Amino acid sequence: MASFSSVLACAIAFRVTPSKLKVTAMQRREVLTNAAALSLLPQSVRANTATAALTAPRFSIAPRVTPLPPLGALSRFEDELVSPKGSRNPSIGVRFDFPSQWAPLDRMGGGITYVDSSTGLKAYVLRAPLPGTSLEATPKAWFGDVIFSPEGTIARSGTNIDEYKVSSSKLIAPADDGAAAARRRLLLKYTVITPANQRAVDRRALVDAYEVNGVAYMLMASATASKWEGGERSEKERCERVVDSFFIGSAG
User: What SS3 class is residue 182?
Assistant: First the structure.
C-alpha cells in the first residue's frame, strides 16, 4: 500500500493543475487507497470517481447460440442475465448478433466476452450501477471511467489501459418491443499497452447501454484504430452491426 505522504503528494499535484489532469491507472489506484487523500481532490475529480463496470452475470447455466441464415456468417447469442436488486423478475433477457468466427472467453466464469483471434475485435457485456442519475442524464465521461476502472472486468482481465476518452454520445431507439426503454450509444477512443513489447496501440469502441432499475447494462465492441475506418468491410462497420443488435429486456 502506498504511504500517505506519497498519496498526499499525488493529491496535491491534482489540485495544482486540475485543468491538465491526466490520471493514469496507477495514480488512480494509489489515490483511492486512502480516503483522506481522496478528500483533498478537486470536486470535479471526486465526482468522476465511479463504480467499476463488471461482467454482467448470467442467470442461466448456458447461453443459446444459433447460426443465422442465409450462410451462417453471423450467430445470435441469447441468454438471461441476473436482474438488479429489487426487480420484480429475477432475470432479464439479453440478445446480440456477432460474427460466427468469434470465440467465447469467459464461459466458465459466467460472463459474456467474445474475441476474434485473427483481428483482435472484442465484445464485452458489462453492468454498473448508475451514479444516482438516469441513463440520459449521466455524464458521458462516467461511462469511460467505469468501463476502464482498474477494478473493472476489462482491466482485471489483463488489459493495460494507458488513456481513454468518450468522444461522442447519443440516445437511440430500443432494439425491439420488450426492450428496456432507455438506450444510449457512445464512441470511445483508448490506448492499450501490449504486454509483450510495451507498445502503445490505439483502439476504438462502440458501447450501447440500456438502463434497468438504476443499472446500466452495456455491450462494448472494440477494434484497433488502424482498421476502424474503410467502408463496408471496416472494423467500425462490424462493431456497429454487433451493437445495433444488442437487446436488454425490461425487468419489470
Answer: coil
